[in-house]
Amino acid sequence: MQQLVYFFQKYKYFLFFLLLQSIALFFTINNNSFHKSKFISSANSITGGFYEKASQISDYFLLKAQNKELIAENEQLKNLLEKYRNIADSSTTNFTVIDTVRYHQKYVYTAANIIKNDYHKTTNYLTIDKGISSGVQKEMAVINSKGIIGITDASSTSYTRVQSILNSNSKINAKLQKNNHFGTLTWNGKTHNIVQLEDVPRQANAKVGDTIITGGKSSIFPEGILIGTIKTITPNNTNTINVELFNDMRAIKTIYVIKHLDKKEIESLNNPTYE
Amino acid sequence: MSSTLRLIFLFFSLLLLQVFVLNNVLFLGYVNPYLYVAFVFLFPLKQERYLFLILSFLLGISIDFFSNSGGIHAFSLVLIAYTRLFFIRVIFKKTVSDFQFFELFQEPFSKIFNYVVILTVIHHFSLFLLANFSAQNFGRIILNTLYSSIFTIVLFFLAAYILRKRK
Questions:
Q1: What backbone torsions phi and psi does residue A216 show, to the nearest 5 degrees?
Q2: In chain A, whose CA is at the least distance from the CA of B67?
């Protein structure tokens, strides 16, 4: 017993050092497992508040590019609207009025701003300025007008942390636009504009230049959101495809968070034990 | 009292400088200086060593809070904070009785340089190893460590000598 006390007395500085190191390691490991990192993140009110202040200043330098992007998106939406208006005008016989009571809205969009952006690490996260008070929670899709950005993974009252697609833990269902063969979208941590599409069957006949969109097999992303185009194909047994993103992940500012209204229902069907 | 105030000022200025300025440098896309290691070099030796470890841990974990990195900065900073005494003994040939009067910038430059380089490289290596969380991209870890260390060391000596001259 005395020996034990003596041991502690002699090595207490070293033991204290080990204690601090193990706390740090604990946080590190926790951070690497998806959806467990609540505590240490830029989504808490102190760090989020600081980043919002800093972002308010740097936003002025991006105003021009942001305006251009918004105009381009407006143009796209107007064209889309015009297309539907034409259908409604020309084919009145086939046109049926949708009963608003029976019409089921599946997705809700919430606009938000990125107040912190990372793209140079292997596990990148963004912070956005909407939180639980605006209806943003974890496991929601984050996109902008050019394509996907990531999935929310931790929320406080007014800030949310987003796991970027440039995160080696991300796995997103994606497919080829031309023939609906699907695979898993991952990132190898190397270049900020190239992601990898894996497990695509050989009969998919993927070619360089083909467009990749989200697959709609998850309960997070709606089907058909743009991702990128195929850049190179490595012919080996896993069949990895390099996809060049439409988004420049270094210069993104305004984004939309998509809430899937039927998510709970779908998940309860997939995991009936939780009911 | 003034030394306590200086330490608080050092702590917060290094934290804010790192998070809002240096984390956005990204020279060539990924080379980043981590100047907050200067906390370990500049912290006076005569202070309580437990306090020193706790403050290093707090500085590291605060930077982790801001950069969403779990506890990697805390781990690396506490690691060099603990090994600092060993290197002071070996490089500057100091014994425990000398610690009271130790001033880093009164030592010869070559020794300071060795001391700063060794601790910076240890810190950066453990930081990038933990950040990658595997030895998979080992070549990348080594390259990152090399480039970022050079950046940090140059920045540290520039800042140190510019701020010294004014006194």
A1: 75, 15
A2: A42
